[in-house]
Each structure stands twice: as C-alpha cells, then as structure tokens.
Amino acid sequence: AGEGSAPTPGDGGGPSAPERVLFPPTFSVSEIKNKQRRHFMFLRWKQQQRKEKLALKKKRRKEREALGDKAPPKAVPKTIENQRVYDETTVDPNDEEVAFDEATDEFAPYFNRQTVPKILITTSDRPRGRTVRFCEQLATVIPNSHVYYRRGLALKRIIPQCIARDFTDLIVINEDRKIPNGLVLSHLPDGPTAHFRMSSVRLRKEIKRKGKEPTEHVPEVILNNFTTRLGHSIGRMFAALFPHDPQFIGRQVATFHNQRDYIFFRFHRYIFKSEKKVGIQELGPRFTLKLRSLQKGTFDSKFGEYEWIHKRREMDTSRRKFHL
Q1: Average pLDDT value over all residues in the chain
Q2: Where's the Brix domain (predicted)?
C-alpha cells in the first residue's frame, strides 16, 4: 500500500486509540507483494505476538497469586529433551548386569583405585598456534597431564611408548585450517577409543568476564545426562581422566554436560556468598563434542573393531532420538 492509501486495520488512529487486534485471523504476511511493506508488517506481527504472550503470562501469574496455595502446579514446557524417544539401553543404576559390567570393564582398575590417571595430550602433525594454546590450557584443567607436539610420528608408534611410560590415557587434538576440530580419546592399555567432532572452541582470552588463571588443585567433576549404556561408557571415559579425590579448597569444577547428544565442556570456579547464593566464574577453555565413533581397543583406523559408529542417514531420522 502506498502513502495515500487507507490505514491498515490496527493502526489504532493514534496513541490514545483503544487497543484492538492488529491483524485478522486469516491474515498472511506472505500475501503482501511489496518487500519492504511485507518486512515491516512481519515485524509488527511479531511484536503483537510478543505482547499477547506477555499479557497471557501476566494474567496467569495474577490468577496463581489469587488462588495462593490452591493454584494448580506450573505446566512443564515441551522441549526436544524432555520429549525424547525412550531408548531401550537406558541404564538403571540398580541393574545387576550393569554393575557386573562396570566391575569388569577397562575402567575398573581406575574406579577400584588401582591406577592413578596420567594423561598424554598430543596433536595432529605440526600443529598451529591456536591448537597449541588450546592444548596448553587443557593441560591446566586435567591434573597430571603432559603435552607433546607431534612431528611426523604415527599414533601406532606413540601408543606403545605411552603404555611403556605408564600413561593411562591419550588425547589427540586434530585441527583443520588452524582450528581445533576433532578429539580422539584412547584409554590405555586396552582401550576403548572414542572419536569426537569438536566445535565452538573458546580459549581463555576469548571468554567474557573470565576469572583468574586456574590453580593446580584437583578439580571436581560433574557428568550430566549420560543415561544410556553408550553414554555410561563415555561418561566413565571422561571420569577416568581425573584423580579420585578432588581438592575442594581449590573450588574448581569441570563439567561435561550432555544435551541432545552434544557434550558441552565448561570449567568454573565457585564461591559460596551465603547459604543460598553461589557465585561462579568461568575459567576456560570451553568446547563442544559430538561422538562420531567408539572403537574397541586402542587406536586402529584399518583393522579396529567398532562398538558404535554415528551414521547420520540411518540414525538421525527423528529429532527426538538420542544415543547418549
């Protein structure tokens, strides 16, 4: 509509006009031919939707306040996470079969306190600056870890040397175009080996409102939402990287949070301000992992036996189906 046309229903005729519905029920923005007008009307429609949503929220809150203790419980919002399709491999903590598997798997010596974690962090061949800095910062998060920069040495030659030197885990950071984009975690000496895609890497200097440098205290470890048998195995792999007894005086915590099969890593320091309030500051680095495969034994790209491989076309048929 041009400047001389009649006002659109809902223009209101000025600030003093009573509020009324801006658009008829059958209104469709896509019917407007003029691109600028269509964009303008779309923004107004979105604004109206927001106002209606806020008004409804306000009305419900007043009704709840009026009812007091008799108010019905708040409705749980629908999310992809709480509507997930049930997985038959979901772990029951009291399952005797699961308990037996845990007592005899590759991580049992760690959880029985027979081994102390000793980690080697290495890179793809001839790493660049950002990957080097990320490895250095990761080494400050994981106690008793050592960084080694590869120069043409194959992983199959590195692994026997790690086992001979009593390393319990090997972490390999891969990069593409100078950006870290993959992580291989191999538990020594008998595996398993997990391959992750890495994204959203943020170094310490790139995090807003970051805290001071982390101390050498052993951090606490939080593992969230690793509910299936596969997720349980991955959670145990991460747990086996850290010593058993955290030093609470350091007030540092490493979190692996699984949501929709994406594993978000965060490293924080906390302080109790009062009995109810806790302040936290992020120390960094932060990154996100997505499991691509889980392989039996140590790294073997040719003859390795895979327990699980992510096949997008077969497995990602439903947005509500998760594997961890």
Answers
A1: 85
A2: 117-300
